[in-house]
Amino acid sequence: MKAAKRYTGLSRGARIVRSLTFIIPMIIMAGLVFITIFAPLIAPYEPTEQHMLERRLPPAFMEGGTTKYILGTDHLGRDILSRMIYGGRVSLSVSLLAIMITAGVGTIMGITSGFIGGRTDGFLMRLTDIAMSFPNLLIAMLLSVGVGPGFWTVVFALSILGWAGYSRMIRGESLRLRNSDFVMQARVNGVSNLGIMFKHIFPNVVNTLIIIMTLQIGMMILAESALSYLGIGIPAPTPSWGSMVSDGRNDLDRAWWISTFPGIAIGLVVLSGNFLGDWIRDKTDPRLRRL
Amino acid sequence: MADVLLEGRNLTKHYPVTRGLLQHVVGWVRAVDGVSFTIERGKTLSLVGESGAGKTTTAKAVLLLERLTSGTILFEGKDLYKFSHSELKTQYRPKIQYVQQNPWSSMNPRMRLRDIIAEPLVTNTKMDRGEIRNRVGELLANVGLDPASIDHYPHEFSGGQRQRIAVARALGLNPSLVVLDEPVSALDVSIRAQIMNLLKDLQDKYNLSYLVIAHNLATVRYMSHDVAIMYLGQIVEYGDTEEVFQKPLHPYTKALISASMLTLPEDEQEVKQIILTGEMPSPMNPPSGCRFHTRCAEAKEECSRDIPEMVSVGVKHMVKCHHHG
Amino acid sequence: MSEIVLQVENLHTSFFTNQGEVKAVDGISFFVRESETFGIVGESGCGKSVTALSIMRLLQEPGGRITGGKIILEGTDLVPLSKKKMRAYRGRMISMILQDPMSSLNPVYTVGNQIGESIRLHQALPENMVEPAIIESLRLLKIPTPETMLGNYPFQLSGGMRQRVVGAIAMSCRPRLLIADEPTTALDATIQAQYIALFEDIQKKTNVAIIFITHDFGVVAKMCHRVGVMYAGKIVETAPTREIFKAPQHPYTSALINSVPRLDRKDERLFSIEGQPPSLLNLPPGCRFAPRCTVARETCRQQEPPEVSVGADHTVSCWRVK
Q: Which residues contact A11 (CB under 8 A, 6 or more apart)?
């Protein structure tokens, strides 16, 4: 024990805590992916199945609860656990799709902007400024009203402005890399601009990209939840964590579990996303590979 | 008749300095101002000078990384700026290569060794994967690196090994000229000798020409056949290395040699130390007449007035000074 | 013979990493006298910078730590001093100059401010005496127009001038010992020559003892009275400068000197030392230089050589030297 402390400066307890900061998020995220895929097999009930005689039942570990509905039921007698499982599936799919689209668009814009510079850079950055100054929620609402609510509307609403967060940061990285010695070397070797952007700029930007993406998991889930809470997200009766929180807001005093469990789920996933981002970045940077 | 590979005639590069909202030009940084030299096949020319002298800019112009304001670069007798885009791609770029000073930043940290060395081959030839793999192995052996390490990343190698990788990469396309920017100054003292010896061996084996940029005179003396001493954008002394170092004519050359010479404490009494006053003036505002006159201990009246000509003194020795010799 | 300002006895400094203990400095001893410049020469990883940081007690705990030995500055052992007491020493009794003048100066404070910080911290001067003291420091480093320099920011100065300002900060409280860690490496040759001449002048005026860390033998020859050559955490040879160049006793010292190209003659072929310095995590048994030594014998590979004296002020650690 003492020897280990001398080497790393951390006590055994501290080192265990440090390992946990990536094991637990991994488990959570893995769990989320699992339930997304196997939802129909795990959930005890259909998410839309109502049991009108058993409304607002508390969770099993509380007085008045039963093991029939482990996490209780909501105001329409629907099983909270099943709704959380299906809701997780919805939240995750929406978020992942939105992240893919925004990351893709934002990265292409960022790399091009930083590398090419000049008027292209100016133009793309003005676009980014415009996107960043639009109120996200307002656009989402307009879309929801204009196109009609639904899964794809939400994806679209989250993606339409979300790329701006990537393009600025990736542009910064691209700018820095453009002037690096190995890019100059590639130019001397005759590699084309496109080739340099693909082979030299992009791989060195991936690190930053992954960090932003994992941070975005949490943010997207929160954003989707916010939209659903406001009623302009995933339409009822399809559950989503946000709409579940919304459903329970009138019952906070007597049936707090309707809002609380989905709320905790959102919190845990956001936190896990953040920790995971840090871990992935440290592991994939070849410079930190153990020699 | 000397076999001239590359010739620079009156190379000039001025950078505009702008100010204000409308970006109007308020002055010019005269980084390189009328530089001429020749590089022979199989020989080394060194550009020596302190920071701000213009040597890196000159090298970049040769590498086509900078566009000259005026002047001509002749490669194998032909004007470089008259080459078409495809001629440049097939006839010039493969023949000229670049080894940089900093072995830690000249390679993409996310590329493996084999891809780093293969890149010029992939971009410029139609070799298939097998041929490229063989060539990479050959190049590694040439520079004394273990071929088994081709899957490693740059950070897994030491500074000296990375410079070897840089040299291996540079030789891939059988270049005629390699531009080496301070190839050993970032390395440890005992490794420098290894790399310098390697470069000399490769030069003999492949009849390579080198354009070396350096500020260390001893390195220059060891490696070069010809030397050009640069000050504030101009060449002040030029010629055969041994000639220039044994019989320096320009006061700046003499000061540089004095500053770089290994003098032991008791020798100091015999060898007079030349210590210059002040610092190199800004290339935006070079002094009138001879640019060196502000720091020259031997300056006379005409030095601040008249610009000295480049005069030939001896077989291969030129100097730009009113009072040479 | 002037008195000894610093005496380092059997200093051990290690870094504790995930992969084990790195013995960056493994038992070195040397001394520096008043008005004398002691050079420490070696390549990267030999432990010279760590030695400097150890003397200044600037190592980052818990990773790096002095694990043994004494550092005696004018009678006081610095190793057991509390952090508070050590702070009183830094800047006032010992000072340090680093290699890169760009990052040694804070870009958002003026020159006057940065020199003044040191003076205010260590000297109990009334406020109206501070500015003259700052100007005095600038004059010591021969900085032109010191009154105007007070208000200048680092970005307005050239590399050589910045290094002088760093020197002025270091000398502002007239320390007894100045440690310079490769201060001239980033400077041009002619500026370097000016700088070295300047320090010789300062030493004459203030009698400061200087430890000059470098890898450049030219600088060693010009600046240092005595030299210690370090390799893989140990000092392999210590001698007056003249001796080191004329009659180096340790194979590493002579190999190193021979691998440096000379300006006073044309070298046909440079001698180069094969291989690389050993990993400090995995030191070879016996003499650390043995794997690369051209004259190594069996004993060399088995046991570490003791330090022996071979003349006035000249010590070597090599089995070939009796």
A: A1, A5
